[in-house]
Amino acid sequence: QVQLVESGGGSVQAGGSLRLSCVATGNTIGWQYHCMAWFRQVPGKAREGVAAIDADGRSYYKDSVKDRFTVTRDIAKNTILLQMNALIPDDTATYYCASRPGSFCYNFAQYNDWGQGTQVTVS
């Protein structure tokens, strides 16, 4: 099983930027073929998919973050990144990294490996 560890969260003013990182450890054999995604959750609300990236580097985004967020992956480092620009208060949430094998990475309903989350606060 793959373990996912996020970092890079913090507090920022509206209009600022943050970059989240997620490192995969453990049984990473075949991980380069997995779908990877970022989710976020606000207390009292359902977790929502924000961005996903497939093995070929194709990325998918929630409409509200398009043109502001960019997801990338570094296969050699077992890492994915989420660059978040032009942050707004509605982006405040706990952000989670997730992965799963297979395709159709934009299907946020099927992710089954999760990190512990990192808090992002925009004021």
What is this entry, summarized?
With 123 residues, the protein is mostly beta strands. It contains no helices and eleven strands.
Describe the structure.
With 123 residues, the chain is mainly beta. 0% of the residues lie in helices and 50% in strands. The chain is built from no helices and 11 strands. The strands form 2 sheets. Strands 2, 4, 5, 6, 9, 10 and 11 form a 7-stranded mixed beta sheet that branches. Strand 5 and strand 6 form a beta hairpin. It starts with a strand and ends with a strand.
Give the key terms:
single chain; 123 residues; mainly beta; seven-stranded mixed beta sheet; four-stranded antiparallel beta sheet; 50% strand; globular
Mean pLDDT: 94
| Radius of gyration, whole Å | 13 Å
How many helical stretches? 0
What proportion of the residues is helical, as a percent range? under 10%
Which residue ranges are poorly predicted, with pLDDT under 50 across at least 5 consecutive positions?
Answer: none
Distance between the amino and carboxyl termini: 37 Å
Helix and strand content put the structural class at mainly beta
Share of β-strand residues: over 45%
Biggest beta sheet attributes: 7 strands, mixed
Q: Label the overall shape.
A: globular
Order of helices and strands: EEEEEEEEEEE
Number of strands: 11
List the helices and strands and how they pair.
Layout: E1 2-7, E2 10-12, E3 18-26, E4 35-41, E5 48-53, E6 59-61, E7 69-74, E8 79-84, E9 93-100, E10 113-114, E11 118-122
Parallel strand pairs: 2-11
Antiparallel strand pairs: 1-3, 3-8, 4-5, 4-9, 5-6, 7-8, 9-10, 9-11
